[in-house]
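Entry for glutamine complex. Fields follow.
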Amino acid sequence: MTPEVRGLPLVAQAEGVARGTWKSRDLVEAYLDRIARLDKRIGAFLLVDAEGARRAADSIDRKVAAGEAVGPLGGVPVGLKDIFVTRGIETTAGSKILKGFIPPYESTATARLAAAGAVRLGKLNMDEFAMGSSNENSAFFPVHNPWDLGRVPGGSSGGAAAAVAASLCAGTLGTDTGGSIRQPAALCGVVGIKPTYGRVSRYGVIAFASSLDHPGPFGRTVEDAAALLEVVAGHDPMDSTSIPQPAGRYRAASKTGIAGMRLGVPKEYFQAGMDPEVEAAVRAALDELGRAGATLLPVSLPHTEYAIATYYLICTAGASSNLARYDGVRYGHRTAEAHSLEELYGKTRGEGFGAEPKRRIVLGTYVLRAGYYEAYYGKALRVRRLIANDFAAAFAEVDALVAPVSPTPAFKLGERLSDPLQMYLGDIYTVAPPLAGVPALSQCCGFTKSGLPIGLQTIGPALGEEAVFRVAGAYEARTDWHRRLPEDPA
Ligand code: GLN
């Protein structure tokens, strides 16, 4: 039997494979067919590994036929943001400078997905080195939002969010440094969670800003995201910042309900400038959580106004040092002709990096410069601590925080390209949780009159993913937004 994969949750796909209702190969063929028909219009995939996916699916199907266990994600086709290094498969991080880079090793998160039986369909489009909020910084081509092809899917994991929204795969992995999982999840109407810093290994995840980079999953439903996180989370000795704790029981938490939970509503997350339809949808979602049995309480995160400045100082400093390794000697692109080492570096980097990484390298080098370090980077680190303290104080009073994700729904392609500052300001509600390292999830809580998804953000205390999944699962159980699907592009 060939299942209709459009809108079919990942956990249902895994159950169908395990029960023999359908074959993993059938799922793979159904998605490959959708990708071939629809992705020209969406642009989610940078690389499709059809033969690799077929081989992996057939091997799962042989195991099922032989009565062997295939793992919790057995046979489920997934996509990977092209920031995860994949052994033998080109990995570019959305940049020309890594064009042609074939990694000799595999990231921990993607290795764990494969060990759990997931089948890799390919690599997903993204903003270059995960720098951006619209996916327009991809060095290759932009991604179109499946709900309105003239609009951005969000970024930097735009391909990962759009692929799930358009049913081009069952689930995906992305990364979130300042919002890159939650904001595209919101703009595309799917579920995305940035876990606690260190919960998912960064080993084999191409670095942007190491103290802020958080790998995490996208799913169609809360349970799908939970199932993916259960597989990829947990201690990894290959990442020295990995938390030495096992993954939690997120699927179970998503079904526990929220009776008696205390939810904080941060007043700084409802500011002038927010789109009125976004505000109305988020406020209606808070009312729904109240009806589900939670108590809603006003709270304050007083240093929120400094979060964007702090984030853009710390992430650019991280970028300038992490991107120093692309020198034309070790990876990817090398300039055709150079007469000295300095010229080799200069021309390679000049040709290989796009405008946004260059902007961040310049800014990051400046804030780390001797003489300026204390005024900029050192100060940003101190403010980062105050922002983390805000969250700690709030979580002494409440179990989780509920807020918007993005102040606006998906904007038009090109609309913010000429004004990087305006693009950065759109990250107002997503940059603080990664600065504090706390988990945060985005899910759909409504649509604008013109049919664009709106996101609800649930933020938990450090290591409090279960609280986040309880809230998200309870909200989803009482609403139908997650069942709406975008029309397939003609
Ligand atoms: N939009 C933010 C930026 O451009 C966040 C990106 C991210 O989370 N990787 O840096």
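NOTE: The chain has one domain: 10-302+389-483.
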